[in-house]
Automatic annotation (TrEMBL):
UniProt keyword annotation of Ion transport present: yes
Family: Belongs to the ATPase delta chain family.
Ranges that cross the membrane: none
Native organism taxonomy: Eukaryota, Metazoa, Chordata, Craniata, Vertebrata
Key words of the record: ATP synthesis, Hydrogen ion transport, Ion transport, Membrane, Transport
Main location: membrane
Sample GO molecular function, one term: proton-transporting ATP synthase activity, rotational mechanism
Location in the cell: Membrane
Keyword ATP-binding: no
Pfam families given in the database record: OSCP
One annotated Gene Ontology cellular component of this protein: membrane
Protein species of origin: Laticauda laticaudata
Protein name: Oligomycin sensitivity conferral protein
Length: 192
């Protein structure tokens, strides 16, 4: 009888996870799990953008020295941390969706010190949701305004389906998916 009860509890815990809305990318680790759980509720209510803006505000509030000292202190009880944070976030007029689903969940699971990482994971999910891809550009010298504008324009070019186009000085390497598809199409047309 005891084994059956334990098995029943373990499967009942798993079932609600199947009702979660899955984010566009999987982020592993504790931060990813909490961000995934938090992604589900606003997604169902079509308020992802609103919650993303509010989480930026939560991150700013969390960086305040007074609050940071309370949240990072392991001797302060979770209920006290939650109450202090709730009071501050209510002053910021954040929605219950953010306060209850995110902050309360983190406080109840003693995860408030990891809030910046969890907000970062949520931000990555939102970037993937919008179809954005992380790009890092390293240059030997600081780019002037004209080059920076040209770089931004090139990076936002939707004609590069995948892969990359690299231009260094007078050298040009085109490894874009669009170019590969065009080459294959030409080869197939030549054969026919």
């Amino acid at each position: 009888m005891f084994k059956h009860t334990v098995w029943h509890f373990s499967t009942s815990v798993i079932r609600p996870a199947s009702k979660l809305v899955h984010p566009p990318i999987q982020i592993y680790g504790l931060e990813g799990r909490f961000a995934t759980a938090h992604y589900s509720a606003p997604s169902k209510q079509k308020k992802l953008g609103h919650v993303e803006k509010e989480l930026t505000c939560v991150l700013a509030v969390m960086k305040e020295p007074t609050l940071s000292g309370i949240v990072m202190n392991p001797y302060v009880k979770a209920k006290v941390k939650q109450q202090v944070l709730n009071d501050l976030l209510l002053k910021e007029k954040l929605s219950p969706l953010t306060i209850i689903n995110f902050v309360k969940m983190l406080a109840e699971n003693s995860q408030l010190p990891y809030t910046p990482g969890e907000i970062s994971a949520f931000g990555k999910m939102m970037s993937a949701y919008r179809g954005e891809i992380l790009c890092s550009v390293t240059t030997a010298q600081t780019l002037d305004e004209a080059n920076l504008t040209e770089l931004k324009t090139t990076l936002s070019d939707s004609s590069v389906v995948g892969g990359m186009i690299v231009s260094i000085g007078d050298k040009y390497i085109d490894m874009s998916t669009k170019t590969k598809i065009q080459k294959m199409s030409r080869i197939m047309q030549e054969v026919v």
